[in-house]
């Protein structure tokens, strides 16, 4: 099952927004979009649950983040560059790439 990760870069003038500025926040967004708990997400992506938990909840980043981001992107369909680099490809903008 692939997730249609098509978050757009629209910001409301009032109200709340989604924080996707860190790898751990983006990881949580992917997991929630897929409807998984941490154990399910880790299993689906071929990773240990304790490792996923440390990335998402403790804010740690994988040592081989490119490999991990590619693996998660492949399994979930989320945008690889967004997962790896963040909003607008890590340039500090507020756009999130969409998967075409």
Automatic annotation (TrEMBL):
Gene Ontology MF term list: DNA binding
The organism's place on the tree of life at top rank: Bacteria
InterPro entries: Lambda_DNA-bd_dom_sf
Gene3D superfamilies from the UniProt entry: lambda repressor-like DNA-binding domains (1.10.260.40)
Protein name: HTH cro/C1-type domain-containing protein
Organism field: Micromonospora tulbaghiae
């Amino acid at each position: 099952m692939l997730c249609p990760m098509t978050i757009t870069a629209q910001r409301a003038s009032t109200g709340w927004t989604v924080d996707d500025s860190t790898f751990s926040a983006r990881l949580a967004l992917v997991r929630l979009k897929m409807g998984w708990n941490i154990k399910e997400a880790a299993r689906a992506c071929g990773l240990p649950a304790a490792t996923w938990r440390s990335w998402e909840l403790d804010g740690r980043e994988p040592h081989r983040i490119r490999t991990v981001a590619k693996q998660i992107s492949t399994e979930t369909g989320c945008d690889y560059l967004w997962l790896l680099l963040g909003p607008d490809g890590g340039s500090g903008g507020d756009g999130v790439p969409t998967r075409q």
